[in-house]
Design brief:
Elements: H1 2-19, H2 24-123
Length: 125
Amino acid sequence: MKNILVLSILFSAIALPALGELTDADLDKIRLIVNEGVKKENTASETRMKEYINLKLDNVNNQIKTNSSEIGAIRSQMNVFIGIPLLIITLLFAWRALRDRANDKQIQALIAENEHLKRQQTITP
């Protein structure tokens, strides 16, 4: 009987704190502790995210600068590759125009000479 009484008291003593209710003050303390932990974690997470984003932005900006310089180099090469054929074509057209003028002068001279010969033939029959 003693054993049962001792065990009953022991189990009751162990179970009593489980029956206790949390007061508003206890809940507020728990909220404060949880909020402080969450704030610390949020602050640390935000700091890591900001650092990560800044690193990525720096990488993107560097790539943009690199690509811009490469684009500039490509544009200058394109200007050369486009400009040289255009220059050659222009020179060919100019040379052909000069040649055509020389041919036109020769044709005009031949026509004039032909007219002159026709006049001579009509005068001397």
